[in-house]
Amino acid sequence: MEIITLTEFIGALESASNFLDQNKARVNDLNVFPVPDGDTGTNMSMTIKSAVKQMKRSKSDDLAEVASEMSRGALMGARGNSGVILSQLFRGFAEGLEDKETLDIQTLAMAFKKASDMTYLAVMKPTEGTILTVGRESADFALKNAKKYSDVILFLEAVLEKAKESLANTPNLLPVLKEAGVVDAGGQGLVTILEGALFALKGSPVASREDRESVQQTQKQARPEISTDDIKYGYCTEFIVTTEANHVDELKQKLVERGDSLLVVGDEHMIKVHVHTNDPGLALQSGLEYGYLKDIKIDNMRMQHSQRLFTAEEVDKAASGEAEAAQKTMKTYGFVSVCAGEGIEAIFKEVGVDHVVTGGQTMNPSTEDILYGINQVSAEHIFVLPNNSNIFLAAQAAADISEKDVVVLKTRSIPEGINACIHFMPDRTLEENVEAMERAIDDIHTAQVTYAVRDTEIDGMAVKKGDFIGLSEKKIVAKAPSIEETTIEVLKEIVDDDSTFISLYAGADVDDESMEAMEDRLEEEFSDLDYEVMRGDQPVYYYLISVE
């Protein structure tokens, strides 16, 4: 094989996406800290899925245009820092294909190099021993050795071997990896993507989970041709509503008279809808009354093939139009905050946040999710609070895309975000508020109490799966047999002579009785400090801790 055609390129990326999807748990398990995380593999998988989805929507037969669509899809779907870095890798790769009709070896080598360069530009302080290193060393090898190969497959096999070699060396470049006994998760994700793409180019593309299940079902039972004469409702319509309150019953009542095979399930954050109807537009309009639509799929059952009736741009336009209709006045300042948990959301609303993007640890929101939140706020200046270091890059990408004046505050935790909002003053200038809120972020000590998901030894502390652990400043600072004892041990580590106030936000798995017991312990252990124990209802963390 001397070149890669457009069709082969699309097939390779889809195979890469499917292979990463199959192996995302393996990538997740490489995360250094033994906390409920699910970050890297899941985030990279969702990012590349978005790239494939956008690419396959393209009607163009031009390689460069399709690659550009791939890049756009990756950026909008990027989740977590690893996802944003991957999106920038796709962006650089797409730029390397400008004005190209096919992919030959030299073009591939140049595209790999541009991809690597773009990832380094995306990170303020690049760290070696990560996906950046694996991408760079692979690209340098490709550029240096391109002229030695005449067959694309042999060339890519050599690049993949170099990527694996680079990945194996990451623990030697990043001590924390060696201490944990793992290679870099992002680098493993990139190697998995390259492997999946190569499978397709060699004639054995990796099928999606859905495709494999469909094939297996077909093999079990062949089905005769079905008449469509008796189909009462012709369009199978599916979509998800991202909402801020539980409207499941209301939406169900609106849809019950508009079709059959109705399924409306969800909660106060998200509603999934499936309905057979003759007017998909009315069904979508009903959903828009309660929030933002995504993952829209409409199939014409009579024609026995999928027809996409709405493009991503049309859906975005409809959603933004709904948002604009809801915005009545333009104010000077607005806030968008990322968080999860009814109690935490309520606290952010109390301190002035206009729109909450649901997400956080284990469920990083995409660039598109954050951008939608920004578009929901009618203000001259909009502050975005990521509240998790793994959401910084996605938040900044959304700010860069937005035409509004957006400031991303680098809040690494929920308490930092809340403290920043408390120190905001509407009569200050933008610069004064940024300075005051950044100072407020730095003025508090924060920590989290959770549980270990695997055995490890890190920072000189041996941890067993299931242990209760406390983390602060990206370090495990405490371990104890109970949630209460772990929380007290964490506080003893971070409370100092200048501390005056302790705030605890109780998670969804902490009951009222335990909260009362914790208040008694605080009175016993820290009687000279003021304190407050509040219900946050956040997932993953038993307690979020703030000391000021």
Would you kindly provide a written description of the structure presented here, covering whatever features stand out?
The protein is an alpha+beta fold. The protein has helices at 6-28, 40-57, 63-77, 80-95, 105-122, 131-145, 152-173, 175-180, 185-201, 209-220, 248-255, 280-288, 312-326, 342-350, 367-376, 392-401, 414-422, 430-442, 483-494, 512-525; strands spanning 3-4, 103-104, 235-242, 259-266, 270-277, 292-300, 305-306, 331-339, 355-358, 379-385, 405-408, 445-451, 456-458, 461-463, 468-472, 475-480, 501-506, 530-535, 543-547. A six-stranded mixed beta sheet has the order 16-15-12-19-17-18, with helices on both faces. A five-stranded antiparallel beta sheet has the order 4-5-3-6-7, covered by helices on one side. Helix 2 (40-57) crosses helix 3. The radius of gyration is 25 Å and the shape is globular. The termini are far apart.
CA-CA gap between termini:
64 Å
Which strands sit side by side, in order, in the main sheet? 16-15-12-19-17-18
Structural class: alpha+beta
Principal-axes geometry comes out as globular
What does the main sheet amount to?
6 strands, mixed
How many distinct beta strands? 19
Task: Catalogue the unreliable spans.
Answer: 212-230, 304-312
Helix content: 40-55%
Summarize the structure.
With 548 residues, this protein is an alpha+beta fold. Helices cover 49% and strands 19% of the residues.
SSE inventory with pairings:
Layout lengths: L2 E2 L1 H23 L11 H18 L5 H15 L2 H16 L7 E2 H18 L8 H15 L6 H22 L1 H6 L4 H17 L7 H12 L14 E8 L5 H8 L3 E8 L3 E8 L2 H9 L3 E9 L4 E2 L5 H15 L4 E9 L2 H9 L4 E4 L8 H10 L2 E7 L6 H10 L3 E4 L5 H9 L7 H13 L2 E7 L4 E3 L2 E3 L4 E5 L2 E6 L2 H12 L6 E6 L5 H14 L4 E6 L7 E5 L1
Parallel strand pairs: 8-9, 8-10, 10-11, 17-18
Antiparallel strand pairs: 1-2, 3-5, 3-6, 4-5, 6-7, 12-15, 12-19, 13-14, 15-16, 17-19
Helix pairs in contact: 1-2, 1-9, 2-3, 2-4, 3-4, 4-5, 4-16, 5-6, 6-7, 6-9, 7-9, 15-16, 17-18
